[in-house]
Amino acid sequence: QQQVKQSPQSLIVQKGGISIINCAYENTAFDYFPWYQQFPGKGPALLIAIRPDVSEKKEGRFTISFNKSAKQFSLHIMDSQPGDSATYFCAALSTGTASKLTFGTGTRLQVTL
Amino acid sequence: DSGVTQTPKHLITATGQRVTLRCSPRSGDLSVYWYQQSLDQGLQFLIQYYNGEERAKGNILERFSAQQFPDLHSELNLSSLELGDSALYFCASSADRGETETQYFGPGTRLLVL
User: Fold this and answer.
1) Which of B30, B62, B63 lies closest to B48 in space, CA to CA?
2) ∠B33-B43-A39 over CA atoms, to 5°?
3) A32 part of contact set with chain B, CB < 8 Å
4) What is the pLDDT of residues B13-33, one digit of tens each?
5) How deeply is A33 buried, as exposed, middle or buried, from its count of CB atoms within 10 A (0-12, 13-18, 19+)?
6) Peptide bond into B25 cis (omega under 30)
7) CA distance linking residue A18 with residue B108, whole number of Å
8) Which of A81, A101, B8, B65 has the highest local Cβ count within 10 Å?
9) Are B111 and B38 in contact (CB under 8 A)?
10) Distance separating alpha carbons of residues A112 and A6, to the nearest angstrom
């Protein structure tokens, strides 16, 4: 059962544009929501993360928006750059219990010139 | 560089064989996690060890097993390999049992079963 649904599967954005990736979860026990960035041939790397007690977190050009009532969260990449071209995974974790990160299916982002 | 190392980087083997993947966590990290990444299943959690003991289990097949040694490195053993086991296998580590979240991923081992 897919507990974290991610969309879109792929995304093409022009340089300078805004990239938006959405995720929805089902398990209300999840209380930590990280985003990972993965370049070809590399392991996923933590990009930014949020807890449900805040509705938004911003780090540089990356912002997570969180809607607890809708059980949805999204990643916004402002001023997208070609170097942002990668696969992005949302994930969810229930801290304090068996710590299994549940990943979304990934979004392949391509930023064109 | 996350500080997590994995060997080998690539592995090609035949069906029915057994392989061992190795992971060294970041210095000081006590937890090691194993993940499988395939095109059709995405990133799937397999198993976690904390300070030598199994802490959490995910979608790990009975043909697969893992252990964490006193020096905290971990090995993932895959036996009776099938074509469908071809995938990227990632190891991640964290400082604690997982309650505070941050997992750092290694570069992965790409396994190809022919």
Assistant:
1) B30
2) 100
3) yes
4) 999 999 999 999 999 899 999
5) buried
6) no
7) 30
8) A101
9) no
10) 22
